[in-house]
Amino acid sequence: MTPKSVAVAGATGLVGSRMLQVLEELEFPVKSLKPLASERSRGKSITFRGESIPVEVLAEDSFKGVEIALFSAGGGTSKRFAPFAAKDGCVVVDNSSAWRMDPEVPLVVPEVNPGDIAKHKGIIANPNCSTIQMVVVLKPLHDAARIKRVVVSTYQAVSGAGIKALDDLFEQTRAVLDGREPECKVFPYPIAFNCLPQIPQSDAFTENGYTSEEMKMVNETKKIMGDDSIRVTATTVRVPVHTGHSESVNVETEKKLTAGEARELLAKAPGVVVEDDPANQVYPLAIRAAGKGETFVGRIREDISHPSALDMWIVSDNLLKGAALNAVQIAERL
């Protein structure tokens, strides 16, 4: 690949720092790197390939001479600055929800719909973390048997809500173990030793009773899979896990797939690792998926309540495949 000039917007944040790490680990051909962040990060530096690089404050003219920009700076920031980057000839891969459902913007998971990358007009959207790991597993099943309906419940790690949320988890855990009342700074209720069926932590619920996170999974799945006929319903839950989202997924197919057939299809699927030997307590775990780029699937079994449905358990690192790695993989395709 020809070396590229790259910018990372939100370079000092949790996902932005992972993007820098992934660029380095995958030996992405970076000709020059421009780390960008808000005014709060003025004076900071990041280390990339052994070199200390000053962080620049994100501005409308930050992208002159930049070929690819990875954004992880929030939806409002992306809405404001991504068009300026595109206007300057830079291709933006955006990790926020700002552009995902824009009909002019491709929403891409490289293992699922890489061809959509070519349709970009300067901006490509990185999907929701929970959606990414699910569609990587759904794609081979859909190609083989056409999925009719998906029922998913998520068990989402605290790192998906950012550094302050992780601080909340640690501080609340210490408080509970010390016999003190936990203080809630990010979430509406304690996350330590608890589960919260509300993601995001504020302004979550829509008029239909679903949270905005749940509706992301519904709408994004259809767009990425390129099939509006797939029916999706979701319940998303925050759990006291540091990193690694887990999902219980029930998939109804038009053509019956046995559990063995599903395992065989998934074992050949790009980016998927089958861990499915429950007799020997082998199944995906968030603690093992953390730090790894693959999506893990197990507990694959035929739904005893339906003649043509499967149940499965899907786990992936939400900061890697669910965010930073997927964005860099899109950039590699570019």
The tally of domains stands at 2
Briefly note the structural class of the backbone: alpha/beta
How are the strands of the biggest sheet laid out side by side? 5-2-1-6-7-8
Examine the coordinates and then state which fold CATH places here, giving the name of the CATH topology of the largest domain.
Answer: Dihydrodipicolinate Reductase, domain 2
Low-confidence stretches: none
**H and E order:** EHEEEEEHEEHEHHEEHEHEEH
Helical proportion?
25-40%
Classify the beta-strand content into a percent band: 15-25%
**Shape-level CATH architecture of the largest domain:** 2-Layer Sandwich
The CATH C-level name of the largest domain is: Alpha Beta
Distance separating the two termini: 10 Å
Radius of gyration: 20 Å
Question: Main beta sheet, described?
Answer: 6 strands, parallel
Any idea what the CATH superfamily of the largest domain is called? Dihydrodipicolinate Reductase, domain 2
Shape: globular
Total of DSSP H or I helical runs spanning 4+ residues: 8
Question: Could you tell me the number of beta strands?
Answer: 14
